[in-house]
Amino acid sequence: MIKTETGWPALPAAPDAGLLLLRLAGAFLLLYVHGVPKLLHYGSELHHIEDPLHLGAGITLSLAIFAEVLCPLLVAAGVYTRLACLPILFLLLVSMVFVHPDWSIADGQFGWLLMTIFASVAVAGPGRYRLGSLPRRGA
């Protein structure tokens, strides 16, 4: 058994478990707070969504739903994880820089924390606990 500097046994899967927790927590928070409400209330969201890139409300809302619903599901599953983080990071960056430039760090802490989570996952990758890496029966 390998022991760490603290004397506790080393957990070889700890980084992978940490990445799984990071992926699931970030995806859940983004979906629950932003994605699902936009999807369920598409009509009302269409009337008050900010359009900082001047693409039109419909396109902007569709892209936001893509980044806040489909991409977090891919990240949670560990499928195309790094690629799926890019639209999320772009959306969060546009939101923080162009839509809410007047927010202090304290006001925008949720957005900055989500950016930190998804940037970390984009850099580290999904880890080994992901769909497609599960052992198959009989193999």
UniProtKB/TrEMBL annotation:
Membrane topology per record: Multi-pass membrane protein
Top-level taxonomic group: Bacteria
Subcellular location per the Swiss-Prot or TrEMBL entry: Membrane
Transmembrane segments: 12-33, 53-76, 83-103, 109-127
Entry keyword set: Membrane, Transmembrane, Transmembrane helix
Cellular component terms (Gene Ontology): membrane
Protein's UniProt name: DoxX family protein
InterPro entries (UniProt xref): DoxX (IPR032808)
